[in-house]
Amino acid sequence: MKIAVIQGPNLNMLGIREQHIYGPMNLEQIHDQLKNAASQNGVELEFFQSNLEGELVDRIQECLGTVDGIMINPAAYSHSSIAIKDALSAVELPTVEVHISNIYKREEFRQKSVTASATTGVISGFGPFGYHMGLIALMQIISEIKAVEEAQQQEVTE
């Protein structure tokens, strides 16, 4: 099982930026913890971070046929990027959107996620632990999809 972890703008500044909102962990520490959890479950992770919308769109498109699912924190683009939403819709992969802060307790413009409608689900407000929740959710969703596909394949061969 392979999952792409895609991180949006300013997440490279975690640990420095607004610690009262995002906490003291930096992105590398979050990724290291995710790698540990993934390896214990036989899951391969691919990490990508960009501050550029087009690069995020390109990376999402590259996921088609190469990964089983996507975990994405579109960050500020969550609230405005039709391009990222459309890319997620196009690849039709199980996708979990993660937000470190609770976007529903923040400024009004942050309380709506444009990209969420193209995802399987959203995890918001649990700090870096939200990424672990996203990993668990994706492992379950992907396992269920694979089980259904295997059952359908068995029916065809019988």
From TrEMBL:
Substrate binds at residues 73, 79, 86, 100-101, 110. The record marks 17 as: Transition state stabilizer. GO terms for biological process: amino acid biosynthetic process; aromatic amino acid family biosynthetic process; chorismate biosynthetic process; quinate catabolic process. Its EC number is 4.2.1.10. Coiled coil: none annotated. One of its GO terms (molecular function) is 3-dehydroquinate dehydratase activity. Pathway: Metabolic intermediate biosynthesis; chorismate biosynthesis; chorismate from D-erythrose 4-phosphate and phosphoenolpyruvate: step 3/7. CDD domains: DHQase_II. It catalyses: 3-dehydroquinate = 3-dehydroshikimate + H2O. It holds the Pfam family DHquinase_II. Keywords: Amino-acid biosynthesis, Aromatic amino acid biosynthesis, Lyase. The active site is at residues 22, 99. It is an enzyme of class 4 (lyase). It comes from the Bacteria. Catalyzes a trans-dehydration via an enolate intermediate. Homododecamer. Belongs to the type-II 3-dehydroquinase family. PANTHER family: CATABOLIC 3-DEHYDROQUINASE. This is 3-dehydroquinate dehydratase. It comes from Poseidonibacter parvus.
